[in-house]
Amino acid sequence: MAKLVVSREGHLLESRFIGEARIVIGRAESADLRLDDATVSKQHAAIEVVGNDHILRDLGSANGTFVNGARAERHLLKHGDVIAIRDFEIRYVDHKSVAPGAGDRTMVFQSTEALSEAFAQEALDAPAPAARATAVTLAGGSLRIALGPREGKKVPLERTVTGLGERGRARAALLRRPTGIYIARVEGAAPKLNGAPVAEGWNALSDGDIVEVAGEQYVVRIG
Amino acid sequence: MTMQLDVASASEAGLVRQVNEDAVGVDAEAGAMVLADGMAKRQGAEVASRLAARTILHKLTHAAGERRLEELRGAFEAASQAIGERIARQPAYEGMGATAVAAWFRDGRLAVAHVGDARLYRLRAGQLKRMTVDHSFVQAQLAQGRVTEDETRRSRSRHLVTRALGAGGRTAPDVAEHPVEPGDVYLLCTDGLHELVEEADIEAALAALEPNVELAAETLVAMANDRGGTDNVSVIVVRARAPEAAAAPRAEPGLLARLRSLFSREGR
User: Fold this and answer.
1) Residues in B 5-34 with any Cβ partner in A closer than 8 A
2) What predicted TM-score, i.e. pTM, was given to this entire model?
3) Residue A142 pairs with which residues in a beta bridge?
4) Contact B222 A185 (CB under 8 A)
5) What residues of B are in contact with residue A78 (Cβ under 8 Å)?
C-alpha cells in the first residue's frame, strides 16, 4: 500500500496511507491532507486513485505543485517521488511497486468500475495502452551505399528492423539488438556478407563489413 | 475465393519466468488459430491456457462455418466451461483463467474473437492496425480520458484485465468479421509482445520481414526478449498470399514449422 509522508523544513508532520478515495491537499478545513499555511491554496492539489495508480493533479493553485523539482500539472506517481507545495514536502512511498516482479502477473479486475469498459468497444481507433517504458539500449548504426545506382547514400537504422532490397526478388533485413546489428535473408537470393551468402536466420555484423543485397553494396557502420 | 495462407508461430517463456503459461493452437487446414495466456490465483495458469487453446481450436475445426461469429462465441463459451469443470474437479485451480484471441480465415474473410488483452493486428499496405480493443482496466481508463497514453507506459494497473475465460468474471468475447485482401499480414499476440514492443516497431518488423512469416514470428519474440522478456511471449503471423506469389514456389527456410493451407474449404 502506498503512503504519503509529509514534512516541513525537515520536521515530520504526518504519514498516511492512500486508500481508495481521492485525496485533496490544501489549506481548507475540508481538505483530506491539510497544509496549514496562507501561501497554500484552499484546494491546492489532489491525488486520484486509478486502479493501482495514483495520479497527482494541481487544482489550479496560486503557487504551483512541484514533483522532484519540476512544476507539475498532472503526474503519475512512482515510488520515491517528492511532491513540493511551498515549503511542505510530501514523499510518495510504495515499496511494493518496486519489489521484483511487481505488477507483472495478469489478474482479473472486478468492480463496478470495470463495467464501464463496455462503451469503449466501438472505439477501434481509440488509443491503446502503449508499450511499457523499458530501459534497453539497442545497438545503433547505418549503412553507406558503396556500389549501385544510389552510391554514396546513407541508410540510417532508425527502427528496430529495417528492410533492404526489392520486394518479390531479393530481400534482406537488418535487426538492432542490444548485442549488435544482425542481417537475415527475407526472400529470394541470400544477401552476401563480405562476399559469401549468409546462413539462414540472423547473422551478426561487424563495423566495416560489406553487405550485398539485390545488386547494391553497403558498408556497415556500427555505433 | 481461394486464398493461400502462410502461417508461423513462436512462443517462449521469456527471460524472467520459468514456465510458459501461453498456449498456441494452429490448424492451417481449417484456417483456424488461437493464442491463450494463462493466469491463476494459486496454480493452473498453464492448465487454463492449454485447455482454452485446445477447446477453441477443436470447436472451430469441427464447426460448420456457416454462422462463424456465433460459432466463435460458442467456442469461447466452451473453453470457459472446460476451465470451470476442471476447477470443480481440482479446487487448487480455483481462480485460474486465460485471455485469448482466435482468428478464423474462411471464404476470403476473417472472423476474430478475443477476451482480455491478447490482440490481433493487421498489416495492410505497410500500415499496422489494431483490430481488437483490450478488455483491460487501463484501456477503459484511457477511453474515458482518465489516464493518458503516455501514463499507461508506467501504469501499475496494466496487468488488470476485465474479462477472461474461466476466472469467474466476465467471459464473453468480442467478435467481428473482416474481409481479407491478398498481401494482408495478420499478427495474433499475447501481452508479452505488445507490453514491451512499440507498435511502430511491430509495424516496421512485419513490413520488412513478410512474406517470410517464420522469420517474422521468430524476430518478434526476440524483440520482446531484447526489451527485458519479462513475460511469456507468443505470436502467430499469418499472410494471405497474393495469387501470383502463390504460383511461384519459394525456398523453404526451415526455421520453424511451416504451415500452409488452402482456406477455400467449401464454406457456404
Assistant:
1) 16
2) 0.82
3) A156, A221
4) no
5) 154
**What CATH code is carried by the domain that includes residue B67?**
3.60.40.10
The reply to whether B74 touches chain A by the CB within 8 Å rule is no
Does residue B99 have a pLDDT over 50?
yes
Which of A103, A128, A185 minimises the CB distance to B130?
A: A128
* B193 vs A contacts (CB less than 8 Å): none
- Total domains, chain B: 1
* ipTM of the shown complex: 0.85
CB B61 within 8 A of CB B27: yes
CA B9/CA B19 separation, integer angstroms: 18
Partner-chain contact B159 A168, CB within 8 Å: no
Cell 491478447 found at: B118
Q: Are the beta carbons of A120 and B167 separated by less than 8 Å?
A: no
CB contact under 8 A, B140 and A162: no
pLDDT in tens, B26-79: 999 899 999 999 999 889 999 999 999 999 999 999 999 999 999 999 999 999
- Secondary structure of residue A214 in the 3-state scheme: coil
Nearest alpha carbon to residue A155 among A146, A142, A170, A166: A142
3-state secondary structure of B137: helix
CA distances from A167 to A142, A170, A214, B210, B212 (A): 21, 7, 10, 10, 12
Per-residue pLDDT tens over the stretch B133-179 = 999 888 888 888 888 888 888 888 888 898 999 977 788 999 999 99
State which residues form the domain around B228: 4-263
Q: Is residue B224 part of a domain?
A: yes
pLDDT at position A219 is: 95
Joined together, the cell numbers standing for residue A46 give: 489532489
Instruction: Name the stretches of chain A with pLDDT < 50.
Output: 112-122
Q: List Cβ<8 Å contacts ≥24 apart for A174-177.
A: A174/A143, A174/A205, A175/A202, A175/B219, A175/B222, A176/A138, A176/A139, A176/A140, A176/A141, A177/A138, A177/A139, A177/B222, A177/B226
With respect to residue B268, please indicate whether it lies within any of the assigned structural domains. no
pLDDT in tens, B180-214: 999 999 999 999 999 999 999 999 999 999 999 99
Q: How far is B266 from chain A (nearest CA, A)?
A: 30
Give all strands (DSSP E) within A86-170, no chain letters: 88-93, 107-108, 141-147, 154-156, 161-165
Whether B147 is covered by a domain: the verdict is: yes
Q: What is the pLDDT of residue B15?
A: 86
B105 found inside a domain: yes
Summarize pLDDT for A166-208 with one digit per residue, the tens.
888 899 999 999 999 999 999 999 999 999 999 999 999 999 9
- Calculate ∠ Cα A93-A97-A98, nearest 5°: 90
